[in-house]
């Protein structure tokens, strides 16, 4: 007998709920169902799906599929929506109080909330068709609210989806009484996708310590850190991870290898064994160079489409989603047999050493946790110059449309902060 029938809500001509930036519920439920199903298979739990592609399946047809398969339990995955964009959190439905359906719903709710950390809205009861027409105990999870801009942003984050899928799978396993066997992929590893865990000020100050002369041919160091924060946020890549990789690849922007500073190539893209100096990829500007690195990291860490025009010349050579974790970026450390660096044993570990060291840097006073707003927008220039973080205050005055004094800039920034 089949253990669980997994149902990805909506699909095909039925998009389900749609978020403020047009993210469709049907696409997220399919991702989560496929991810959770794969995890359950790894635990030896027999599963099947009502759909594995973007096709329309009627509500009654979903119940028919589960009933025909004689599944023991039915689990439907949905993303919530409401009339208020402030609605937040996770809830799970059963058909009625009492019985195995409610027990399944409680197990799913507890595990999912623990995994993704959103507001616990509890277990509820509803006469949904997929709960009413299935012959086996059934539950329907509502992971979060797609009409809430913050939660829609989470649903675009591959690392968040991995956590949600893990929560779903662990909840199902716990309900079945199966002890979860950690396969190692999620344990003590560092996802490349997600929000930066460090402040831009920490990234800058650590680079200054390692460089000694924080100025690049085409870009002041503090501006470069801002570019990493901006470009990484667009693609959902961790800016601190990308920055740590650049520090490793360039020797804290001192270079000395086969890539030249003027190539705006901060991660050695195209720098292959046997290359002579200058033969690696070159980019027209620092921003494009940063964008290429972020895109190359995303190629390894995710199967999601790029948000911006492709500039990475080696993007198409990467097996998408084959190195979701920093520790897997070295070929010999990756269980999938691929990697950024070849042979690369310890390559990801070297990046992690830098990342961990950066985390010990003090955060610029007055900043909020995990802020990616460039540090020069958060404090007056005089303070940053005094601390040695900004070495080129003239650069920032030149960015204005007309001449302006440093004092005036501080006044303007003070108003922005207020």
UniProtKB/TrEMBL annotation:
- Return one GO MF term: N-acetylmuramoyl-L-alanine amidase activity
Q: Which keywords appear in this protein's UniProt record, sorted alphabetically?
A: Hydrolase
Protein's UniProt keywords contain Manganese: no
- Ranges for domain MurNAc-LAA: 63-173
Carries keyword Hydrolase? yes
Kindly give the CDD domains that the UniProt entry links to this protein: MurNAc-LAA
Q: Which GO terms describe its cellular component?
A: outer membrane-bounded periplasmic space
Organism domain of life: Bacteria
Write the lineage as a comma-separated list. Bacteria, Bacillati, Bacillota, Clostridia, Eubacteriales
From the record, what ranges are coiled-coil? Answer: none
Q: What protein is this chain from?
A: N-acetylmuramoyl-L-alanine amidase
Q: Please, one GO biological process term?
A: peptidoglycan catabolic process
């Amino acid at each position: 007998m089949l253990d669980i029938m997994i149902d990805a809500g909506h699909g095909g001509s039925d998009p389900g709920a749609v978020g403020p930036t047009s993210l469709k519920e049907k696409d997220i439920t399919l991702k989560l169902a496929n991810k959770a199903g794969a995890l359950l298979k790894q635990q030896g739990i027999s599963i099947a799906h009502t759909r594995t592609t973007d096709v329309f399946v009627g509500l009654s047809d979903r119940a028919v599929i589960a009933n025909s398969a004689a599944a023991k339990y039915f689990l439907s995955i949905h993303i919530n929506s409401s009339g208020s964009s402030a609605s937040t959190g996770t809830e799970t439905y059963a058909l009625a109080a009492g019985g195995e359906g409610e027990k399944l719903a409680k197990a799913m709710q507890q595990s999912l909330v623990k995994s993704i950390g959103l507001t616990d809205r509890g277990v509820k009861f509803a006469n949904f068709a997929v709960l009413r027409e299935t012959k086996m105990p059934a539950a329907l999870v509502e992971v979060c609210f797609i009409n809430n801009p913050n939660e829609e942003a989470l649903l675009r984050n591959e690392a968040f989806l991995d956590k949600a899928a893990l929560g779903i799978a662990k909840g199902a396993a716990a309900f079945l009484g199966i002890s979860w066997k950690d396969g190692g992929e999620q344990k003590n590893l560092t996802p490349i996708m997600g929000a930066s865990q460090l402040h831009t000020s920490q990234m800058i100050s650590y680079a200054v310590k390692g460089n000694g002369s924080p100025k690049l041919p085409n870009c002041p160091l503090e501006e470069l850190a801002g570019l990493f924060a901006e470009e990484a946020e667009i693609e959902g890549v961790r800016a601190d991870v990308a920055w740590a990789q650049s520090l490793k690849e360039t020797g804290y922007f001192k270079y000395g290898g086969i890539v030249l500073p003027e190539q705006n190539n901060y991660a050695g893209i195209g720098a292959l064994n046997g290359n002579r100096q200058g033969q690696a990829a070159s980019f027209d500007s620092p921003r494009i160079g940063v964008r290429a690195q972020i895109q190359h990291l995303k190629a390894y860490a995710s199967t999601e489409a790029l948000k911006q025009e492709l500039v990475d010349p080696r993007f198409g050579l990467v097996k998408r989603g084959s190195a979701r974790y920093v520790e897997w970026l070295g070929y010999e450390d990756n269980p999938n047999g691929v990697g950024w660096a070849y042979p690369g044993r310890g390559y990801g570990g070297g990046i992690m050493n830098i990342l961990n060291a950066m985390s010990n840097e003090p955060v610029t006073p007055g900043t909020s946790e995990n802020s990616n707003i460039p540090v020069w927008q958060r404090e007056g220039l005089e303070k940053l110059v005094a601390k040695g973080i900004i070495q080129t205050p003239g650069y920032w005055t030149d960015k204005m449309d007309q001449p302006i004094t440093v004092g005036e800039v501080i006044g303007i920034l003070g108003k922005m902060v207020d």
